Every structure is written in C-alpha cells, then in structure tokens.
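Posted in: Structural Biology > Protein-Ligand Complexes

Title: Requesting predicted complex, acetyl coenzyme *A in pocket

I'd be grateful if someone could produce the 3D structure tokens for the following input. Sequence and ligand are given below.
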Amino acid sequence: MIRTTILGLGSYVPERIVTNDEIPFLNDQHERCDEQQTETNDAWIRTRTGIEQRHYVDNDKDVRTSDLGVEAAKAALADAGLEAKDIDCIILGTLSPDIHFPGTAVFVQSKLGIDGERGCACYDIRQQCSGFVYGLEMADAFIRTGKYEKILLIGAEVHSHSLDYSTRGRDVMVLFGDGAGAMILGKEESDDERSGVIYTSAGADGSGAMNLYLKVFDIGKRPYVWYDANDREQNEIKYPQMNGKRVFLQAVRNMVVSTNEALAKTGLTWDDIDWFVPHQANLRINEAVAEYAEIPRDKCLNSIMWYGNTTAATVPLTIDHWRREGKVKKGDLICSTVFGAGFTWGTAIFRL
Ligand code: ACO
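-- Reply #1 --
Done. Output follows.
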C-alpha cells in the first residue's frame, strides 16, 4: 500500500539574536535604545517561559515570511536530494502571512522558481501553532490517496514586526521569535505499519478562539481597518492579544489528552518512541505535559530556549536543531504534539 515517507527536513532562522537582556531596550521598530523601553527582565522571562533568546529578521530589510520559508525549503530539498521542480504541492502554515491575500505559499513557489502555467498546487493553512501537524495530516492524506507524490510542507513566521514592544504588550512580546522549518514528504510502497507517517490527529475548539488572536482588521466593520496608528488605545488591533493563563491550562490539558490518545490508537509505548517533540510555546507547558503524560524526560526535545515560540515552525525547527546536534537521527520514531490559537491541537507520530 502507499505510505507517506519523510524525504527531507530543513530549517532556517535569521542571523540576528535578541537576548532576554536586550528585549527591555527595544523600541517599537525593535531597534536597541540606550534607555529602557519596557518593564521586563531576563529573570522573569527565563523563569516563566524557559526562553533565553530568540532570532529576529533585520528591520532595515525587506524580509517576509515567504523568504524564511524559501530558505527552510531549500535546506529540506537539499536534504532530500531533490530540486524544487520535483515538488507537486506546497502546503504552508503561518499566522504571519506576507500579505492578507494571496496566501504565502504562492510567494514561496515563485521564489523557488517553480511558478508559471504548470505551477504546482499551493495551499495556505491557518492553524497557528498547530499548523505543522495539521499540514502533515493533510500531506499524508494527499499522498496516500495518490493525489500528489512530493509535497513541500512549510511552517514559517516573521513575528518580530507585529509585536507590541511596550510594557502593555510584554506578556506576548517576549514569547515569540522568527524562523521557518520545512519537510519534504513523498510516497513509498510498503506494508510496514511502522514506517513513514504512522499516525496523525487534529482537533479544535472554536469556543476558545478569542483567548488568543490578532485582529489587524475586522471585516464586520466599515472601515474594516479602523485603527489610528497614532492612537495608543486603538492601535491595539495591530498586536496579538492573549489570555495567557487560559491558553496555558488548555495547552497542557489538550496536549496530554492528544498524546495519550495517539499512543492508545497506535499501540505504541514510550519504549518504542525515540523522541517527544512538543510545540514550543512555553517550557513550563512542555514540562507539565511530560509529567502528566508520563513521558520519559530524556525523550523530550525542546528548543524554545534558543528560538522562542516560532509558531508553525517550532516542530521542524526543533527536530532539525537536535539533528544538527547529533541527537536525532534518520529512522528515529518521533511523536509530536501541538496546541495553538483557535484553540487547535494535534499529534503526529512519524519515522524520520
Ligand atoms: N515581564 C515581566 N512581568 C510580566 C511580563 C513580562 N514579560 N508579562 C507579564 N508580567 C507580569 C504581569 O503583569 C503580572 O504582574 P502583576 O502580578 O503585577 O499583575 C505578573 O507578571 C504575572 O503575570 P501572569 O500573567 O499571572 O504570569 P504567568 O505566570 O501566567 O505567565 C505567561 C504568563 C508566560 C504568558 C503564561 O501565562 C503563559 O505562558 N501562557 C501560555 C502562553 C502561550 O504559550 N502562548 C502561546 C501559545 S499558543 C501559540 O503558540 C499560538
């Protein structure tokens, strides 16, 4: 039977590193100032979130989410030994699209030089931090049904341009970083139920939607972009808003349930699985998930310390980080559970 196999993996983060010590000194253009701009500090960020630094794109250049996605895609294509022209479908997850429409996948396609009259299918998906697992579920279904044969799956984000660099926005601002990850998925003929993509699940609870959101515009209003950029109260619409405690609790609960369900449905145990790679929103969330789901600590891989929360990119970025460190190897069995705005969540079990 046709199964989905992982042909390549790659990731990219911009060069600029912003440490927790630098964060309080950034102005609204995320430029470093001599005077402190925001009341926050390394100890608070480190203790509450586990984050030590994050990467930002430069603010004096014209870099968009698609550019980060292209870099990750090129790395994944090289890893797979393929060229961009071999790809017959692109699926891209982001909450920071280049522009409102068209979606960001078409910009990636064009920048990879595979646009034109016979250009491949391009999907954008809007599942925020759950984007990568949702995308993997979609790619797996496409490949198993024979619809596409080589899919480029990307999670990419430029968060740094849309954060509120003031004390008002500090709870959200300190969490996020820029980055991208990509995976190339292909087909194989195999009856081995433990090869390639073994399991995916995706869930959502729309009643949680307004616990974590970024409006930018409201199509129910006229004018639908109604903020006055010079008015501090009104311009809140530009920035992500979050009920942190609710998100935290729901993340732990849903990630535990989703992970346990994945094991029950596949019959796998933590003896079979090499690595647990959760979404990287907060180290304390991941530690709580590991505790409640009884996941061996030496199997939990995190990278939030160095990259912050890169939303749709965290899963491939974390796997690729630990592969470069020599920990994760080709053929390892990975269980990945995500949770994000929506609320949305999901789990995937796959052999790298
Ligand atoms: N620096 C210093 N102080 C801060 C900061 C900051 N960056 N942010 C908030 N505080 C203050 C608050 O104002 C509050 O002060 P007060 O006691 O004087 O009122 C105090 O710290 C405690 O604030 P809490 O919100 O109670 O802190 P909490 O322990 O809940 O941690 C946090 C906040 C880290 C945001 C936590 O709620 C969290 O991680 N929630 C999940 C958020 C998340 O993961 N979001 C993204 C995931 S989903 C996705 O990726 C789409």
